[in-house]
Amino acid sequence: MPITHIHTYLVHPAKGIEQPEPIGGSTLPLTGQMFRLLRDVYDRADNECDVAISFNHRPNGDQQNDCRDLLIAYARAPHLARGRHIAERLAACTDNRPRMGLLFLVVGSEGLEHKVIISRFPADSGILAEQDGGNLNVEFLERIFMKSAKSYKAVLYRHRSFDAGFWHGRAIDKQMNDTDVNVSGYWINDFLDSDFLTTSATGTRRLAIACRNAARKAETTALKSEIVAAVTLAGGQDRQRLTAREFVQRLRLSDGAARAILSEMKEHLANERFQFSAAEFGRHVTYRSVALDNGGIMTAATDEFDQVFASQVIDGDERIRRYTTEGRIVSEKLGKTTR
Amino acid sequence: MTVRESYQNRFDTLLQRLATGIEGLIREYLQDVPRIDRVGARAKSVDRFVAKSEKLTDGRPKYSDPLAQIQDQIGARIITFYLSDVAAVAKVVETYFRAVETKDLVPESEWEFGYFGRHYILFTPSDVIEPDMDRSQVPDFFELQIKTLFQHAWSEAEHDLGYKAGAVPLNADEKRRLAFTAAQSWGADRIFDELYLERFNGQVN
């Protein structure tokens, strides 16, 4: 049995409150329906929690993080009192938008590794309907805690060493794609004092280079055009938290174009979540297009344009040029023009 | 399996490949940054790792699980021309890597002229992890140092003269002479940077 301890705490919003309510907690038995629900969370966390995050270091650069310290202190000796410190930290980061929640701390071991799950079930309301003979009794219930598909949060940490490990974990946050970053930000950024392990620049650069390479290697004009179009639309994803795989889905690319882009990066990188940066994307993949008054249009990757199209100034007028290029025709297309 | 055997296995199967990957990645990130003298990354040798793993603190082993705890199993270096370049490189590093520690290394006293440089403990980037690698053996971190040419030259020579395994400890006069070279290096770095800024940026007062 890998689970060794489960503790739970009722966490009220306490952000900005001077004298917050005391946090009630309980040790749960390792049997029964509640245990089975949490064992399911524990077992599925390795697959379900797919967002790599890491604790932030101190602002002065020291290798220390208050939240990690609380986590390790608890994981070393999982007592109700130590877990309450984690609950108090969550309460201090919780305002009235995420509202009340039920926090679960689940500790276990997997082989040589220690494993800790922190999960939060949001409070909701509901109606209890009970049939009593021919009568139906209905009752409004508050403080129902659900593993809601919309706002359930969890984070998984596992490592063999308390001293050296537990610097990174994997999270699930169903609100992560919420346009209001503050709603999801309170879980990863505020409570866990963490950020994505893949920086915005790293994830965006990888994606940009994959798009650029896929466009260069495209064997048909249609495929190349589709990828180039995706590149030009990418700016609309600025600041969105996504994976490369989600990026190609959001832009509704054909299977061929999506495959061409994703095959330009290692498979495991396509699933890493990061915050897309339009500025960073533009640094790595841009297209330069020159239109001439004779109807000619030339397009090439910006950094290749001058190699693809040699130009010569005519009669000393910079605006009048002769362009030359040479290459094997890979495709030819006729289309309607706007003329 | 002993610590030496475990590390030797990790060194042979993973660390050298990871170091090569990290060096390549750093080069890519810095390709548009001028005045980089060199970029390098290498795995800590087995002998040096074992020696470090056996260090004592107050008579007790410093590391209970050295394979997990020693964070510089891979060490990378970026050497710049001038002091101003260190900041430019640091900005790129902090943009593309996640750090667990950052430090400006300066001697403890202004009367000392020892080791200078910018130091990071960074998460091993997933870009360099290949599908055939045993992820449980991939170290979580690697060390990165950014130094100027003079900082690098001084620390290399100082390490060679003073800290080689089995070396006799430096005496007071030798330490004084090393301090002199450090002060000379410190001064040269300052003057070169001032000249660079004066000639190319016009920012020196």
Explain the overall architecture.
- Chain A is 32% helix and 30% strand.
- Chain A is α+β, with helices and mostly antiparallel strands.
- In chain A, strands 1, 2, 3, 4, 5, 6, 7, 8 and 9 form a nine-stranded antiparallel β-sheet that branches. In chain A, strands 10-11 form a two-stranded antiparallel sheet. Chain A has a two-stranded antiparallel ribbon with strand order 12-13.
- In chain A, strand 4 (101-110) and strand 5 (113-132) form a beta hairpin.
- Chain A is elongated, with a radius of gyration of 27 Å.
- Chain B is α+β, with helices and mostly antiparallel strands.
- Chain B is 47% helix and 20% strand.
- In chain B, the strands form two sheets. Chain B has a five-stranded mixed β-sheet with strand order 1-4-7-6-5. In chain B, strands 2-3 form a two-stranded antiparallel sheet.
- In chain B, helix 1 (3-29) crosses helix 2.
- The relative contact order of chain B is 0.15.
- The interface between A and B is medium-sized, with 28 and 25 residues.
The number of distinct helices of chain B, counting runs of at least 4 residues, comes to 6
What is the rounded distance between the termini of chain A? Answer: 73 Å
Structural class of chain B: alpha+beta
**Largest sheet descriptor of chain A:** 9 strands, antiparallel
Which strand order does the major sheet of chain B show?
A: 1-4-7-6-5
Helix fraction of chain A, binned, reads 25-40%
Mean pLDDT of chain A: 87
The CA-CA distance between the termini of chain B, in Å, is 61 Å
Output the number of helix runs of chain A: 10
The radius of gyration computed from the alpha-carbon positions of chain B, rounded to a whole number of angstroms, is 19 Å
Order of helices and strands of chain B: HEHEEHEHEEEHH
Low-confidence stretches of chain A: 178-183
Instruction: Note the overall shape of chain A.
Output: elongated
Strand content of chain B: 15-25%
Can you count the beta strands of chain A?
15
CA gyration radius of chain A, whole angstroms: 27 Å
Give helix % range of chain B.
40-55%
Class from secondary-structure proportions of chain A: alpha+beta
